[in-house]
Write a structure and sequence with these properties.
By secondary structure, this protein is an alpha+beta fold. The protein is built from 10 helices and 13 strands. It folds into 3 domains: 85 residues, Rossmann fold (3-Layer(aba) Sandwich); 60 residues, Dna Ligase, domain 1 (2-Layer Sandwich); 140 residues, D-amino Acid Aminotransferase, Chain A, domain 1 (2-Layer Sandwich), CATH 3.30.470. Helix 3 links the parallel strand 3 and strand 4.
């Protein structure tokens, strides 16, 4: 590509996270702007790099509009980080489950249902939207009767009428989880999320708190494998402790929000994310797929390819 001149965050809002990314890009010497996907499809030049950060819709019935515009940019040979397919795979929790399973990465057993039916993996289970976020419309069911009652009440939800629901085995809550940021095959940030008393979910939208952390090596390896399984350039990977010293991928966030609390020791997370992505573009002459040919972990005392991560879990 031509010399990179501008980082274009393709998103439908200028969130605090997106503002932080713009500031870090400008400190790196780049012009940077947030554009809606329609404007990005019209205005981007060959020297621009697009970072897809389209989220799920507030109605939880699919991703925000704009994936087609990202595909248009890809078809024109533009550099797009977080391509349409990767964003869709992250937002669609059924697709996430299939891709993680194909790499033998730890993930709760998952069934896709549109009518009451007992899952093959027993109870308790979690019922959630296929395109979910913010911990909304997520319910624990401890028995078949509870699951039937939950599912019979869901047809009033637009997302259920369109896509059914996911039923997942419950990983016993332990009051905390990890969210690890992965950019261009590197661990660039992390935080421990802690639930409030009486709440099993750790989502900040549900009152959960954040604690800065240096994530353990095994969690980092699994997070790297999850990002690579989806072909994603920049995501947040949520991991639950399994009670035996290991970690389970709960979900992958394609438009992850984060704060300075995610900074690894001695770093600024926004600067680290932008620097890692920019250097991956400038140093990659082989195209998008080559960015995932040798995913490496740095900054956590371990160096491993993504293939090693897959075989270790």
């Amino acid at each position: 590509m031509e010399a990179m001149e501008r980082l274009v965050v393709v998103a439908r809002n200028v969130s605090s996270t997106n503002r932080g990314l713009l500031g870090a890009a400008r400190a790196f010497g780049l012009d940077a702007v947030v554009l809606a996907p329609e404007q990005a499809a019209r205005d981007l030049s060959r020297s621009d790099v697009a970072l897809g950060r389209l989220d799920v819709r507030a109605t939880l019935d699919g991703p925000e509009r704009g994936l087609n515009e990202l595909r248009m940019l890809e078809a024109r040979g533009m550099v797009v980080l977080n391509r349409a397919g990767a964003l869709l795979a992250a937002h669609d929790k059924l697709s996430t489950a299939i891709r993680l399973s194909s790499r033998a990465l730890p993930h709760p057993r998952t069934a896709h249902v549109d009518a009451p039916a007992d899952p093959a993996f027993g109870f308790p289970v979690v019922v959630k939207p296929r395109f979910g976020s913010w911990g909304r419309d997520v319910t624990i069911c401890g028995s078949g009767s509870e699951l039937e009652r939950c599912l019979r009440g869901l047809p009033r939800r637009r997302w259920f009428r369109r896509q059914g629901a996911l039923v997942q085995e419950l990983i016993p809550p332990r009051g905390y989880d990890l969210r690890i940021l992965v950019a261009a095959g590197e661990i660039v940030g992390a935080v421990q999320r802690v639930s409030v008393p009486g709440e099993w979910r750790t989502n900040v939208a549900r009152g959960g708190g954040r604690v800065s952390t240096d994530p353990p090596p095994q969690a980092c390896l699994i997070a790297l494998g999850a990002a690579a399984a989806l072909g994603a350039d920049f995501v947040g990977v949520d991991l639950l402790p399994d009670g035996d010293g290991g970690w389970v991928v709960l979900e992958v966030n394609g438009a992850v929000d984060f704060t300075s609390a995610y900074s690894l020791p001695g770093e600024n997370v926004f600067e680290r994310v932008v620097r890692t992505l920019v250097l991956s573009v400038r140093g990659n002459a082989g195209g998008h797929e080559e960015r995932f040919a040798g995913v490496r972990l740095r900054g956590a005392g371990v160096a491993a390819t993504a293939e090693t991560a897959h075989s270790s879990v």
